[in-house]
Specification:
Layout lengths: L8 H31 L4 H37 L9 H28 L7 H7 L2 H15 L3
Helix pairs in contact: 1-2, 1-3, 1-4, 2-3, 3-5
Length: 151
């Protein structure tokens, strides 16, 4: 594919995939951290360690990776012609919708980590464990959309 990215297309695509891996690693870790953090709220020292871990994960991996994913992903989508009504990009619209929802989940998890840092647990451990699977499901759907391009 050429588009406006020209010869850099493959490099941009490779960087996008690399940062998706980083983001997903963070999204797989943070919910697990939230579970352990919530279970450790009774011990202030343990809770403080989880706050520190979550803060580092967000600042070093999770949020920077998500930003890079969005910037590179939008460049790739524009290069593919998403803004020009190029036909056959239904899969890309669906992918972007899932990535938007995943970004919302990211925001929720970051917000919940901040609530836990204040000692406020609002979700049951069972619900947290179920929500821990959201990134895996979203990743599977995105990979299917990108590889199979069903529509």
């Amino acid at each position: 594919m050429v588009g406006f990215l020209g010869a850099t297309y493959d490099w941009v695509k490779a960087a996008h995939v690399i940062f998706v891996i980083f983001w997903m690693a963070g999204l797989f870790m943070l919910p697990r951290y939230l579970i352990y953090h919530q279970e450790g709220l009774a011990d202030p020292a343990d809770a403080a360690r989880w706050v520190e871990r979550e803060t580092k994960l967000r600042a070093i991996i999770l949020t920077p990776a998500m930003i890079v994913v969005w910037v590179l992903g939008l460049a790739l989508a524009l290069n593919a012609g998403i803004a020009d009504d190029v036909p056959g990009l239904g899969w890309l619209h669906a992918k972007l919708a899932i990535v938007l929802l995943l970004s919302g989940y990211h925001g929720w998890a970051v917000g919940y980590a901040k609530k836990l840092a204040r000692g406020q647990a609002g979700v049951s451990n069972k619900a947290l464990r179920m929500m821990n699977e959201i990134p895996a499901l979203a990743t599977a759907l995105i990979v299917i959309l990108v590889i199979v391009k069903p529509f």
